Automatic annotation (TrEMBL):
GO terms for cellular component: membrane. Pfam families: Bac_rhodopsin (PF01036). It is a multi-pass membrane protein. Belongs to the archaeal/bacterial/fungal opsin family. GO terms for molecular function: photoreceptor activity. Keywords: Chromophore, Membrane, Photoreceptor protein, Receptor, Retinal protein, Sensory transduction, Transmembrane, Transmembrane helix. This is Bacteriorhodopsin. The keyword DNA-binding does not apply. GO terms for biological process: phototransduction. Its main location: membrane. The chain crosses the membrane at residues 20-36, 48-71, 91-109, 116-135, 141-162, 183-200, 220-242. It is found in: Membrane.
Length: 262
């Protein structure tokens, strides 16, 4: 496959390339570390949380390699601006990785299947409509319309995170409640960073620049958000599960008491 000249120029920029290869190395190391941390897990609920969380860096490796190889980077012609390089592969990884984050967090909260399904479906809708915003070329206002739709989906996810799941986690042990509240705030704060970067970056208002340097800055901002939203989130969660499995293992998958609790 022959890369478009604009894509080749972007990937030849050291600042841009480093934002991708750094994440490949980090997510690769994270996957190995998290698998090792879960080597002794036997409880079904904890095992599912581990599996979902380990899937986050595992999916990210493929995504970042797709970006680094140029496979999931394209060029779109934006009305009034001209050619713009878009890293559409990021939306692909968010579509797969963010539902796993929500699954792990919802299971930790002891939420039910309906709330988990709601959060995950609207999250996927957020990612897909975000991709539509990045790829739309007919008119700039249409890009922002898609961005608005994506933001509406996002607000539903935020509602579940800040309102519904905090109610569910009250039935859990105090240590689990504290962990959930920490991860909830980490997730909400960092996830708000993504649409802000989109709006300021090369696919939005282009306030960071439209050339390769602007694209590299945008890419690094996304990568740094991923470090916090994926690696830090996963490490804090899995370290707690590995150190105190009995605290979380007292509930079944969707929060109902186990026989031992009756």
């Amino acid at each position: 496959m022959t890369l478009e000249p604009a894509v080749e120029d972007a990937l030849s920029e050291p600042l841009m390339a480093s934002s991708l290869w750094f994440m490949i190395a980090l997510m690769g190391a994270a996957t190995v570390l998290f698998v090792y941390m879960g080597r002794n897990v036997s409880d079904p609920r904890i095992a599912l949380i581990f599996a979902a969380t380990i899937g986050v860096p595992a999916v990210s490796i493929s995504s970042y390699f797709g970006l680094a190889s140029g496979l999931t980077i394209g060029v779109v012609e934006i009305a009034g601006r001209g050619e713009t390089v878009t890293m559409w592969g990021r939306y692909l990884t968010w579509t797969f990785s963010t539902p796993l984050i929500l699954l792990a967090l919802g299971l930790l909260a002891g939420s039910n299947a309906t709330k988990l399904f709601t959060a995950i479906v609207f999250d996927i809708g957020m990612c897909v409509t975000g991709l539509a915003a990045a790829l739309t070329t007919q008119a700039v206002w249409m890009r922002w319309a898609w961005f608005g739709i994506s933001s509406a989906f996002f607000l539903v996810v935020v509602y579940v995170l800040l309102v519904e799941w905090p109610r569910d986690v009250r039935a859990q042990e105090p240590d689990v409640q504290n962990l959930f509240n920490t991860l909830k705030l980490l997730t909400v704060v960092l996830w708000f960073g993504y649409p802000i970067v989109w709006a300021l970056g090369t696919e939005g208002l282009a306030l960071l620049g439209t050339g390769t340097t602007g694209l590299a800055i945008t890419s690094w901002l996304y990568s740094l958000l991923d470090v916090g939203a994926k690696f830090v989130f996963a490490f804090v969660l899995l370290r707690f599960l590995a150190d105190e499995p009995e605290t979380v293992a007292r509930k079944t998958l969707f929060g109902a008491p186990t026989t031992a609790d009756d």
